Amino acid sequence: MATSISGGTLTLADGLTITRMGYGAMQLAGPNVFGPPKDRDEAVAVLRTAVELGVTHIDTADFYGPVVVNELIKEALHPYPSGLRLVTKVGARRGKDGSWQPSLDPADLRAQVHENIQHLGVDALDVVNLRMGSHDGTDDTSLAAEFGALAELRKEGLIRHLGLSAVSDAQLTEAQGIAPVVTVQNLYNLANRQDDALVERCARENIAFASFFPLGGFTPLQSGTLTSVATRLGVSSQQAALAWLLQRSSTSVVIPGTSSVAHLRENVAAADLVLPADAIAELDTIGAR
Predict the structure, then answer these.
(1) Which residue in 23, 64, 80, 188 is the catalytic one?
(2) pLDDT at 288
(3) Among 81, 136, 175, 287, which residue's beta carbon has the most beta carbons within 10 A?
(4) pLDDT digit string (tens) for 143-176?
(5) pTM score of the predicted model
(6) How far is residue 289's CA from residue 194's CA, in Å, rounded to a whole number?
(7) SS3 (DSSP) at 285
């Protein structure tokens, strides 16, 4: 593994240090994150290249594929380098038609943890995020039973650290009353700024805020302002958007996904980009409310 990567690292707890520039493995599966990749060799190469470039933070989930992505990670990288941290999620299943189905029963959450362990080929999971909401938004529904089930697995040694995905500020507070939270993973990017206050709270409390869909996800960011700024700086729009996120707060991390080695290299290079103040101010207007 490379020893360093631009963008720096975060130490979130004893034994848990991650690169702020991460890699999201979701797109390694087939269309709509379902079924096998169209190019398995390229998928394996992407994972190996990410590690070679110094990325120590790979985001995954057993419901990507399902199972496909975790098995690809195991094939490409096992036995895992000592500094690599795999961050997975539980709280959903996939239907036979590829549909996304919430699955938050505590007994099934335990089963999902065991499945992630099996398919990744590990004795314990570095970080498990409890996925509560959806891409459409969050609410303040109690997560005590669900997060409590994962906290028990942490006590049993099957999970080292816990996080949350698609949650509200109130849910973060509730979870912290049960067990330490090291990561929050919510929809956030230049055009989706509804979690500004939560981003700032996470920075104050040394919690990694991982923006999922940092480039817009299934509906890529389209902004004349973004294009203008990127052109002026001589970088791609995607690189400018990722750099903005990395500079957004001291604990902001990014997990852009791709199934292409060339695109991966472009994304990782965004960690080298330091946006000037005027560019940040201009980009801030995109999501202004």
Answers:
(1) 64
(2) 65
(3) 175
(4) 999 999 999 999 999 999 999 999 999 999 999 9
(5) 0.94
(6) 9
(7) coil
The yes-or-no answer on residue 64 being catalytic is yes
Q: What are 185's two structure tokens?
A: 């993973």
Tokens of residue 191, six digits: 């055009």
Instruction: Please provide residue 18's backbone torsions phi and psi, each rounded to the nearest 5 degrees.
Output: -130, 155
Structure tokens at 28: 């390694």
